[in-house]
Amino acid sequence: MEGKIIYFDHAATTPLKKEVLDEMMPYLTDQYGNPSTIYKLGREAKKAIELARERVAKALNADIQEIYFTSGGTESDNWALKGVAFANKDKGKHIITTTIEHHAVLHPLKYLEGLGFEVTYVPVEPNGIVDPQKVKEAIKNGTILISVMLANNEIGTIQPVKEIAKIAKEKGIIVHTDAVQAVGQIPVDVKDLGVDLLSLSAHKFYGPKGVGALYIRKGTKIHPFSHGGAQEKNRRAGTENVAGIVGLGKAIELATQNLSEYAAKLQKLRDKLIDGVLSKIDYVRLNGDRHQRLPNNANFSFEFIEGESLLLMLDMKGIAASSGSACTSGSLDPSHVLLAIGLEHEVAHGSLRITLGEDNTEEDIDYLLEVLPEIVSRLREMSPLYESVKKGGN
Amino acid sequence: MEGKIIYFDHAATTPLKKEVLDEMMPYLTDQYGNPSTIYKLGREAKKAIELARERVAKALNADIQEIYFTSGGTESDNWALKGVAFANKDKGKHIITTTIEHHAVLHPLKYLEGLGFEVTYVPVEPNGIVDPQKVKEAIKNGTILISVMLANNEIGTIQPVKEIAKIAKEKGIIVHTDAVQAVGQIPVDVKDLGVDLLSLSAHKFYGPKGVGALYIRKGTKIHPFSHGGAQEKNRRAGTENVAGIVGLGKAIELATQNLSEYAAKLQKLRDKLIDGVLSKIDYVRLNGDRHQRLPNNANFSFEFIEGESLLLMLDMKGIAASSGSACTSGSLDPSHVLLAIGLEHEVAHGSLRITLGEDNTEEDIDYLLEVLPEIVSRLREMSPLYESVKKGGN
Amino acid sequence: MYSEKVLDHFMNPRNVGEIENADGVAQVGNPKCGDIMKMYLKIENGIIVDAKFKTFGCGAAVATSSMATEMVKGKTIEEALQITNKAVAEALDGLPANKLHCSVLAEEAIKAAIEDYLSKQKSKNTN
Ligand SMILES: Cc1ncc(COP(=O)(O)O)c(C=O)c1O
Ligand SMILES: Cc1ncc(COP(=O)(O)O)c(C=O)c1O
Ligand code: FES
Ligand code: FES
What NCBIfam families does this protein's entry cite (chain C) (predicted)? Predict the structure, then answer.
């Protein structure tokens, strides 16, 4: 395994697909026109953007005019939340979300709280799934927006967004879903889901970093987020990242074309991994629902050890993975998602997220299942927490 | 000239330099790590971003910690204005700007007006330059921010930002400058200018589209614009556009290394162009100050004709240029900049902006000087406005 | 992020383990914050002759534990008490800013283990 990296962090980002880069290249070289200009070079760039828009619309079952390009998932989330909040504040100032959203949703909402909005954070069940009934109960006079992610980035659980949207529609409440982790992993159909806004980000499905999209259902009241030029029908100003948008379009086309095959392959690997880890290592738990989860996500907590140490040791073995430990980020609290599903702080610290991608093979899983038990026991040998368990246990 | 395009619209955007793309390529292929991750692939991406930050800081004479990456000039402007306004609204709600700012400044300010802020738009002199004294007079109790662009994107005039910053500092007012058109054309030194915030955009100096930076002087009170992950020291959330940022870093390094040589070359071409047009065509004026302007900018108004028609005819001849005509954008009012320097609507409609770049040659200017008079007279022959002048005149 | 030296002390930590009947033992930190350090000292005639540790924490926490045990060995109690977290971090060729707090743990662990030793001595003397 010398030199080679086994990449198990596809939820963090994915490599850019060759076919995607190939489509981008003209727009990084000869086709450098500004899409807002009227001469041929500009019109070509404009056409390329419109083709990308068509592809995104098709992938989501949306209308072309409902797709807006952004600089990524974070901008899409910020725009959706702040844009809807400001545009609808005369109707009310109450927003509902869950405790396991990405920071790109939670932090804009915190900001809105500072500006006088009220936010209800609906807790999730121990399996990491929110109960639509609890969302319904949180609705009150003045609720203007519900934002629930389609799939969680840490524990991979898939949320009942369709049911929630149905409840919201009955009350005339706008619904946003952060589908950044879902697109390219599960089918995403905005009409079927019934949402008004949906965020996505290209680099999560083998597209380029720094480009995303926001689906805005026709008629949804929302302010622009970036003001300036007339790009994106006056709703998102700024010279377009043409190459990035072209890449997003190609990537989403590829991702949705091969979706079921891709998902089936990853799910098989994932199940092998989960079964292997649970059988080979003790004091371990799988985080998130066993079945209602993304095909490529496995998330474990190993008691008595700390996640950053685990990642570093895996890195030495050529394995790239992720953890919800606070030590990874140098902050004090471990992942809010792991805490929200009821893990103790010290258990949350010992978490490992493995997210698979098309480059992964059975051999990769075998290799992980070979080195992981060794690493876990080595770290446990060092751990003062394990010491007492061993003593107590034997 | 068959097939070849003569590109005279470098203020709209520039082609990506080969050396810049070369530095970007690893981050579009093998080096796909997410900079927030702790394994080697992520650390490499992080390092690349930090090198780019160093290069931007060096180019601007700023400290490394004062540079924040964004998705372009528009985001930088939006962040600077909204971020400062919201963070300082307890001190006051009055903002000063000029009438010739880019829409990326004017439209966020309009939005802030809707939220209860007050904005004074200081008019410019007929040469397109603002008088610092008039900015000073606009200051009142509660002025928290002054935003004046360093160089104008349409008429190329260079503004006395340094003098304005000095006035502002005496009163403890924060100063922002939109340097999107200035960087890569004239020296830009944040310490010498004395500004607190400065916006720039890579695609204006042979870097990629969709990436920019905001300089924030240490200690400047500003809110984040995008909330979410901890990227950019918690001030600009979102997975970084690594390849784009790397490209920005390389592009600004190249642009500042060769600046005086580059500027001298373009200025010579520009002067040849201006002299040629003014001598070969009648009923024409040069917009913006003859000398205090960007080395690559020439902006003319041809009476009795309309800009879009002019651009289309130039396009047929293989020339890409720009106009402040409203017809270019399909809106009703021609460029607010041309109106602000006192042009009549009908004159503003007949404007042509030529912005030069490193790919332009003397022959390109010769060619333009050859075809432009023909096109102008052809359009004038069609114009009912010209008809009456001819009759009256002769 | 981490220096070569930090990574070396992380991958090959010196002095991991326990000392039977140690003269001074202390555990500092809080599992909630993701870091606990347990330090064992063997002390003869006021000199630390052996040190071992167990740590639950990040790479920096493990590396600073390892380095701290190396540094105290052979030192007098007084000398060991002078060891600061900065000194431990410097001995590792530095730590990332957001990991400096992990080295504080090492300093605290040394001090707490010595205190444990001193209080045991005291109770021995009073008995
Ligand atoms: C669920 C979720 N939402 C939002 C984001 C933010 O997207 P981006 O990294 O493109 O800003 C991410 C990824 O980081 C994510 O996983
Ligand atoms: C002066 C000025 N400010 C801001 C912008 C916006 O920058 P961007 O196109 O990168 O969003 C531009 C260019 O369009 C500009 O010329
Ligand atoms: S032990 Fe948590 S950051 Fe070091
Ligand atoms: S004449 Fe048609 S848009 Fe101006």
Answer: NifU_clost
Per-residue pLDDT at A391 exceeds 90:
no
Predicted TM-score (pTM) of this structure? 0.95
Flag if C54 and A306 touch (Cβ within 8 Å).
no
| Complex-level ipTM | 0.94
CATH entry, C4-122, from 3.40.50.2000, 2.60.120.330, 3.30.450.20, 3.90.1010.10: 3.90.1010.10
Distance CA B113, CA B103 (A): 15
Give me the residue from C59, C96, C98 closest to A309, CB to CB.
C59
pLDDT at B156 over 70: yes
Closest CB to A230 among B226, B314, B329: B329
Domain B18-255 sits in CATH at 3.40.640.10
A147-194 residue pLDDT tens: 999 999 999 999 999 999 999 999 999 999 999 999 999 999 999 999
In whole angstroms, give the CA distance from residue A26 to residue A48: 10
Interface test with A, best of C6, C27, C33 (most A CBs within 10 A): C33
Our CA angle for C66, C69, C71, nearest 5°, is 110
What is the token pair recorded at B329? 């954008």
CA distance A323 to chain B (A): 10
Return the number of other C-beta atoms located less than 10 Å from residue B145's C-beta: 27
CA dist A256 and A189 (Å) reads: 11
Q: Which CATH architecture has domain A6-13+258-391?
A: Alpha-Beta Complex (3.90)
The C-alpha atoms of residue B126 and residue B7 are separated, in whole angstroms, by 29
B6-13+258-391 and B18-255 have identical folds: no
| DSSP letter (8 states) at residue B287 | -
Catalytic residue (one of B12, B278, B281, B327): B327
pLDDT computed for residue A36 by the predictor: 93
User: What are the sequence ranges of the domains in chain B?
Assistant: 6-13+258-391, 18-255
